[in-house]
Amino acid sequence: MTLRLAFMGTPDFAARSLAEIAAAGHEVVHVYTQPPRRRGRGQSEQKTPVHQLAEVLGIPVSTPATFRDPDVIAHFASLDLDLAAVVAYGQILPQAALDAPRMGCLNLHASLLPRWRGAAPIQRAIMAGDTLTGVQLQQMEAGLDTGPILLSETVRIKDSDTAASLHDRLMDAGALMWPRALSALERGSLEAVPQSSEGVTYASKISSDEARIDWSRPAGELAHHVRGLSPFPGAWFEMPGEKRPVRVKVLLAEAVDGKAAPGTVIEDLTIACGEGALRLVRLQREGKGAMDAATFLNGNSLPAGTVLD
Question: Whole-structure pTM over 0.70, yes or no?
């Protein structure tokens, strides 16, 4: 027996799951994803990774601006679905949509709920210094990531992990959960376990101001901050420029010994912090590509004694 389902998702993280579901032989009758966006210097419209994969697989695609449109919900209900699989779709589904498939809607979330409900769980876990995270399939409810858990996979956060490397490992682990979960659903052997009411945290979107490096914080915390925001949106600081301050992203850094007023350049891109110092290993000046510290210093002056805001 195969399930008749719709898939809802947008980025690469979701496309990997769509590929696994389709490869498992389930009948994906429709895909929903975010509308194409204008990107790049030419501002050409680019379809989402899920949209591109769906076209390769020959699956019809819809890109509604909002899922609260009655016509969108009516079309969704008309698909006569067993299930909807949702991965990083980027829209909140109204109750009418959650109730339309016979088995409801299942969502893949990249944390161990109830820790890090919300939009940026991968970044928040690293930024907070967590050592464990994971991926979970949950039965969707109207609340934000509040539904009961159907299947979990724990993933250890390595000291070397950035948001990018952890994203890829969670993406693979999550995608491989779908065939197991859908097979168990067919057999009626997937048990829903309510989430704990304790330990709830929220992974809100990260603003540019929050990504700015605060040199008064301990170096260990800032090392987590840098890794959790690498490569996007990127932890950043401003260095003196000829006409104006220049923004620099820090893509990799490590906590080291050092003592001076917070924000003071000690030597060779080692910056004093509230406790210890942060050695900048990989950087990206605005308008330039990423480079290692030695290459950065070849073209940029940041001498010892410089004080950064």
Answer: yes
From residue 299, alpha-carbon distances to 76, 284, 293, 302 in Å are 55, 12, 10, 10
- Two tokens at 11? 């980025």
In sign, the C-alpha dihedral spanning 203, 204, 209, 211 is positive
Give 285's pLDDT tier (boundaries 50, 70, 90): very high
Nearest one of 25, 2, 28 to 14, comparing CA atoms: 28
What's the pLDDT tens digit per position in 211-241?
999 999 999 999 999 999 999 999 999 999 8
Q: What does the DSSP 8-state code read for residue 6? A: E
Residue type, 293: A
What backbone phi and psi angles, to 5 degrees, belong to 151? Answer: -160, 140
Domains and CATH numbers, the chain: 4-202 (3.40.50.170), 208-299 (3.10.25.10)
C-beta separation of 121 from 87 below 8 A: no
- Read off the tokens for 298: 């070849």
% of the chain beyond a pLDDT of 70: 99
